[in-house]
Fold each of these.
Amino acid sequence: MRILHFSDIHVDVSPHLVPFRDWIGKRLVGGANHILRRGKHFRRTREKLAALGAFADEHEIDLAICTGDYTILGTEVELAAAREAVEPITKRPLGYVTVPGNHDVYLHDTIRERRFDKYFGEFLRNDLPDLASADGWPLVRLFGDHLAVVAVRSARPNPQVWRSSGMIEPGELAAMQRIVRDPRVRDRFVIVATHYALRRPDGRPDGRNHGLENAEAMLTALAELPRGCVLHGHIHERFRLRLPGVRPTILGAGSATHEGEEGFWMLELDGDGGSATPGWFDGKGYRLDTAETVSIS
Ligand SMILES: [Fe+2]
Ligand SMILES: [Fe+2]
């Protein structure tokens, strides 16, 4: 089974397409920052996503997983544009699994209006809702007899300009503990997909205003998993991490579209485990670096 993991595509739209009512609070600062500084890194995003769709077809990807940050400011026009841009990638035989990133739930209006659900709700199904929190997370998807994908929501609105940190709600973390112990899940290879990194590429905790606030509690819950891996985004650098006492390999996809930093992972799974191969962008299309394939069994 082949799985494509990508993240942080940050599809933007021309600012004049964003309705006047959306230009509030942090969005004014974030929008200006994007226009003046960050935007240049994501200019070819749509073209790159078309190329990533072609890659997925060519490599016969069975399942695609995106760990969020589809947009810059969490506006409806951006979510609609991103949904359209990833459409070819979602058309996999086993489907598509995703979670929102902090940019997709930028301010509280995104939650109030359920904007992410409106555009990506069809990919937020749950095969084991009895294990979820009262809010319905995490989502568990069972594929065949050997694979479970657990989608964990770690992003929340951050109205403060200086903060882009995340948190897994306590109820969801408790549900996570139930999930990793449940016999319907724990005998499988378990892929945990979430937006926030559990650690930085050097293995140290991420900063207080940028990282996942309860990353250590999540690592404790994951330590019980006998076989699996963690897929995440948020840090725009593709990397792999093994931590003492935690069996699952941690794979950060970086950003699939950040100019000059493009990255992703392709996983190949058999019954008990498999391998992960990093991918990159050569200016025209996405390619695999097969010399860097690692075991994730
Ligand atoms: Fe991002
Ligand atoms: Fe992020």
Amino acid sequence: MSTLTKCSIAHKALSVGTHRFDFKIGDRFFEAFEGSEIHRGKADVQVVLNKQSNLLTLDFRIEGEVCVTCDRCLEEFMMPVGYTGTLAVRYSETEQESDGEVMWIGPSETEIDLSQYIYESICLSLPYQRVHPVGSDGKSGCDPDMLARFNIVSEEEFDRLTGNEQTETLQDKLKTKKSTNEK
Ligand SMILES: [Zn+2]
């Protein structure tokens, strides 16, 4: 299955009610964003759209992995990403600023382009500190040669240097996000 560069939904013809859409995004999708910190990646995007007469509610579920640079050894690695969130799409005659929760579209627009929202949601779901995960043997997944080259001695040392002793994990972040959404 080929991957998309753009994710959009032609909402005009949809009947009132719930509709499900699935998108597969890959490298080409991320390449479309200039200056992106994510150069490569792939993800499955599931959208459940609920159409009402003057409002669309879109529930997103994104799962995949993206290529990022390890903060510790500077090698690239694939980091799992997961995101769940809701976006409301409203109509307006005048131009309005869209944010992460509400997207405004003109009444005559026939398609909603969700690419920017999906891209930003993936970026948001990335942890602040990106470091190779620890392997099943309990050893750091970092490239030992690279670490030696950069003279970084231990994980503790690294945490001290970056002033980030307690790294918020992706899982924690998702939990926080989820509980906010459920309110
Ligand atoms: Zn590393």
